[in-house]
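Here comes an entry:

___
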Amino acid sequence: MNARTAAEVLYTNGRILTSDPAHPSVAAVAVRDGRIVAVGDEGAVRTQIGEGGMHVDLGGRTMVPGFIDAHNHMACTAETFFAVDAGPRSVGSIAELVAAIELAAQRTPPGAWIRGFGMDWTRFAEGRRPTRWDLDEAGGDHPVVILHVSGHYALVNSRALADAGLTEAASDPAGGSLERDASGRLTGLLLDSATNLVLQTSVDICGHGPNIHTAIQTDELARMVGEASRRYLAAGLTTICDPQVTSREMRAYRLARARGDLPIRTVMLPLSHQLDEFMAIGLVGPMGDDHLRIGAMKFYTDGAITGGTAMFSQPMGSRGQYPGTLYHQPAELASLLQRAAGAGWQLAIHTMGDRAMGIMLDGVEAAMAAAPDGDIRHRIEHSTWPTPEQLARIARLGMVPVTQPGSIAELGDIWHDHLGERVHRAMPLRDQLELGIRPAISSDAFVQSYRPLDTIAAAMRRVTPNGLRIGPEQELTVEEAIAAHTINAARALHLEDRIGSIEVGKLADFTVLDGDVMATPAEAIRALPVWMTVVGGEVLHSAGA
């Protein structure tokens, strides 16, 4: 018997942070058959473990509840591990992007798509956006798509436009646009719902969001999800919530689980284009088990700050040149929210700018007035720039902001360019706590790093890649950041009775960090190694294995 398979395990000799306000720190934890049976002083806890139980000496390391990422596009992130890495760490210029695509073309079957993820043209050495003609140099006879770091925009080559039948006479779709140059020619950049017109996708989401649902066989996507699960466990994640799931992702997650290749707990949020189908069969989340379940339903209000399509009352840009985009007109969004909430769905609504926030809150408030009573906890995905008045409404409505402080650490300079001094009010986590709101922090991977320690470090010290400190008065302590990535995230998923804290009766999900997190400066936390990850009492990642 070993710690990986033992029915009874005692953990001692470490800093054990519980995310339980009643007992924030304990000396020992006992586990039996995958659940926590005792926490507290070592002497008392030890009596709960029989002679055949295992003892894990933490050696002064830090144990916390297993990290929960309440907004993580795992299926899409899984694809990035097998695609062209167009992120700033790998590609710093258009020339390097072209070279990466040329390399991919050499190993891609003729006529097959070449896909890349993570492009951030603001960091390119040439100082301009790439165009389809740049991709044409490298892609040859392949259709090429490079997803922007925000996930809301895509750049395609001329072959991809031609295959989709798009010419210079094409019209912009509702909720999106096709970028054109000064001569009116399509540049190949697709903004928001315009991605649906070109990309080789497996589902038509009808303008209900940016289409990231590429045409990959279910078997292959399930294999990719298995690889992503292993990388996530190594980063300390025990539960994720994929916030945009169609039939494509659902099939892949179900297949991965059937194969035993989905070791991480997974919650799926169906996208709103499926509302009629779910209502027709009477299915409403939450539904499933502790390993794979359907949660809230996902909606989109506006676009993204990065790229200029979030909707602000004062448009973004030094000249107000970014008016923003709404995926649905206000009355249409309100109708969707009311129908879903009336059926019993928890709502999860992508909202970034303050004008979009007002539209969304109006819709949610009307939906709640007409919906069944209960502790629904509707979610605001990103919740990037709520005004003080809107925060008061969020508190009154009992909503849960699911935020991504890593956006500041990775995209904050773009935000500063678009918002100016307004950027300091982005993601006001401290203000939320003072109003009694319990925000979750999450990654939004593939947009940002999926590593929880990167997210926690970004919540504790809000510094952009260029070193600008953004809204320091909104920074969290390490205890607050850990709570936001554990118990607060569990609340966003309605799973706080099972996971999110180290309490008797809960599932034994733990992350053990190789160091004392309380004594580690914010800027050094992201470098702490993950020593062990435990899910349901089973060691699924061990640094020594």
Notes: The chain is about 30% helix and 20% strand. The mean pLDDT is 94. The radius of gyration is 23 Å. The longest strand covers residues 8-17.
